[in-house]
Every structure is written in C-alpha cells, then in structure tokens.
Amino acid sequence: MFHQIHCLQMIRVALINGPNGHSGHCLNFLRQAILCNADITLDPLFDDPDGTIVGTDGLGVTHICRDWSQIYAYVVENQKGPMWA
Q: The whole model's pTM is what?
C-alpha cells in the first residue's frame, strides 16, 4: 500500500517535471495492483426505450473497499520501535 502511495507521488512529479525511469516502473506497478485487486462489482447499464445502451453512472451499487486501518495501526506501532529512532 505504501509503495502504491509512493508511486502516485512519483507519477504526480513526472506530470510536473517530465517522465523518468522510476515513473515508468510506478505506472506498471500501479497497473498490476489495479488488475490484481480490482473490485469486480458490475454496474448496471442504462438503455433507451429503443434498447440502445446509453451507459452507466455506478450510483446505487455497493462496492467493497479494503479496510486499511489494521495496516496503519501496525505501521504506527512498528515505527515506535528502536529501528526508527
């Protein structure tokens, strides 16, 4: 999770200053994370009365997100140790 947050920062910097080798790595890393952890809940499609599919807005559909509070709690506790002093 923290590597992903770091990569978002590196991509933001690349958008401002131009790409570098690390930003390319980060784009690939985030691509893999999205593909491996994607929420597969389907959003219903809207259609016109004639049957033409119009699209979807994703509203009213329950998506499952991960609870990161345990990870944050572990990291906070871990960083109290002597290695971080």
A: 0.55
